[in-house]
Write a structure and sequence with these properties.
single chain; 406 residues; mainly alpha; Growth Hormone, Chain: A
Length: 406
Amino acid sequence: MTPARRNTILLAGGLVCLSGMIQLAVALGTVTLVAVTGIKSILGLGPAVFLIAGALAVGPAGRISDRVGRMPVIRAGFGLGIAGPAITALGCWAVSGELVFLGLGLCGASQAIVLLSRAAAAEMFPPERRARGMSFVLFAVVSGAIFGPLIFGPLFANRALTPDQLAWPWLGSSLFALAGLLVSLGIRSDPKELSNAYATAAEQSEPAAPLREILRRPGVPTALAGAVASFAVMVGVMNLAGYVAVGHHHRHGDIFTVISFHIVGMYGLVLVVGDVVERIGRTRAMAIGLVVMAVSNASLVWLTGIGGMSLALFGLGLGWNLAFVAASTELVSRAAPSERGSLVGFSDLLSSFAGAALALGGGVVYTAAGSVSLAWFATALAAVPALWIALVPLALGGRLVRRFSV
C-alpha cells in the first residue's frame, strides 16, 4: 500500500471518529445553550460561536501547517475536540452559559481544523485525481449518520433535556475526538511532504506567494465564492434545523433523524461526486450544487414534518457536497504545496464567518418572522451566488495558469 493511500485511509478514520462529536454539537448546541441560559432569543448565538471560533482557528492553523506540516495541526484539532465537549458538560453542571460558550467554541475550532484533512488528502494525489482523493476522506463522515439514530436518538428519547441530563452525553462525546487523535498518530509521512512529488519545478524553487497575490489568480475568486456560499448556507441552516424542528412540535429525539439524513446527503454520495466534478467541470459543479441547495431550502416552506425536513436537509447536504468538493479541489489546484494551507485556511475562515452571520441572522429571522421567512432567506443566499458563478466569463473561470495545474 502506498503512503498516500495509507494516509488517506487514516485521515478518513479520524473523520469517522470526529463525526460523532460534531453531530452532537450540531444537533444539541442550540438546545443546550437555551436550556442553560433560559434565553430563547439567543438561539442563533450557539451556532455562531461554534462557527466564529472555527473561523478564528482555521486561518492560523492553515498558515502553520504550511510551515510545520499538516499532521501536527490536525492532531491539535483533535485535542480541542477532546476539551470542548468536556467544558460544555461542566457548563451544564454549573449552569454556566460562559462555560457552554467556551466549550462550543472549542468544538467549532476542532471541527474547522480537522476538516483541513480534506485538503491534505487531495494534495497527495496527481491533479486529475484530487477530487476523488478528497471525496474519499469526506465519505468517512457519513458514518456520523449512524451515531444519531443508534446512540443519541435513543439516549434523548422522552427526556426533558435539562442541563443535568445534557452533561453526561457531552462528556462522553469527548471520547470520539480521543479516538480520532489515536488514529491520527498512525500517519508517519506528512501529506505536505508527499505532495512535493506532484509539484512543478517552479513550485519547488519559487517562494510562496503572498495571499493577496494568490487571491487574484484566475479561478480563485470563483472557487472562493463557491466554497464560502455553499458552506455558509449549509451550516447556517443545519445548525438551526434542530430548533426549527422543535418549533414544529417534534420531539428532541427526532432531531437526530433530520441531521442524519443531512449527513448522508453531505457525504453518502461523495465518492460519486468526485468523479462527477472532474467530468462536468468544477465551475459548473459549483453552480449546480448551489442551485440544488436553493431548491432544498425553498422546499422547507412546505415540508415541515420529520420526513419532509429530512428530505430537504438531504438535498441541502447533496448540493453542498457537489459545490464544496468542486470549490475545494479548485483551490488546492491553484496553489503550490507551500501555499495551500494559507489559501484553504483563508477560504474556511471566510466560510465560517459567513456561516456564523447566517446563523445569527437566520435566528433573528426565525424569531421575528417564523420558519417560512427563514426558508426563503436561505434560498436567496444560495441562489444569488449560483447565478453569479454561472455568469462568470469562461476566461475567468476556466483559463489556465501556467504555473499551476488545473
